[in-house]
Predict the structure of Metal-dependent hydrolase.
Amino acid sequence: MIDVKIIGSGSSGNCYVIDDGKTQLIIEAGVAFKHVQVAMDFDFSRLAGVLISHEHGDHSKYLPALREHVSAPIFMTTGTAKALKQTLFYSPIKSLDPFAAGTWKIIPFEVKHDAREPVGFMIENQLGERLLYVTDTYFVKYKFRDIKYMVVEMNYLNTIAMENERKGNLNHGLRNRILTSHFEMSNSLAFIQANESDKLESVTLIHLSEKNSDEQLFKRRTQAVTGVPVYVAPQKSW
C-alpha cells in the first residue's frame, strides 16, 4: 500500500509525501520547511528523495531550506535546475529515463506547461504498486498501465473561469495562461480515463484553483468516471 499525505496543494504551495511503509518520497518543495517538519513528525530517517516537477515558486520556493536540513537527494531535470540557478547539489533526471530512490522506481515524463523542462512522475514500489503524479499541465501525451493510485491536477472549470473574467474577477492574460498551462476538468477527466485500469483504487485531485474550481463537482464527476474513492487535496494541512 502507498500512503499519500498532503502538506500543501495549490498556488499557495505544493508539497506531498508518499510512503510505502519502508521509504518515503517528498514531491515538491513549495511549503515552508517548518510545516514539512511537522507533517513528517520531525523524522526524515526514511526519506529516500525529493522530487521537483518544475521551477515555479509554488513547487520549489522552499527547496533551499529543505536541502539545508535534509540529506536525501533532490531530483529534477536539468532545465528545472538551470531555471532555479541550482546547477549544484541535485541529481539530474530526464524524461522516460528511470531512476531509483530507496524502495522506489521512478519514471519522469514530459508534460506541457510554461516552464523550462517540467515533468510528471510514474512511481512504483517494490510490490509493483504504481502511483501516477501529474500537475501543472494542459496535456500529457503518454499513457500508463496498471496504475493503482492517481494524484492528478484538476485545476479549473472553463465556465467558471469565463464568468470570473466577465465579472472582472479574472485578468484576461491570467485566464489565457491558465488555459495553456493547467488541466481543465474535462482534460483531467480524459487523462484519468485514458490511464484507468482494473487495478485503480483511488484518485486524489490536486492543485484546484481557489476561484475557478468546483470541488464537489470535480469529485462527483471523477467518481462517476472511475467508480473508485476520490479525494480532494486541501490547500494546506495546518
User: Anything to note?
Assistant: Residues 215-226 form the longest helix (12 residues).
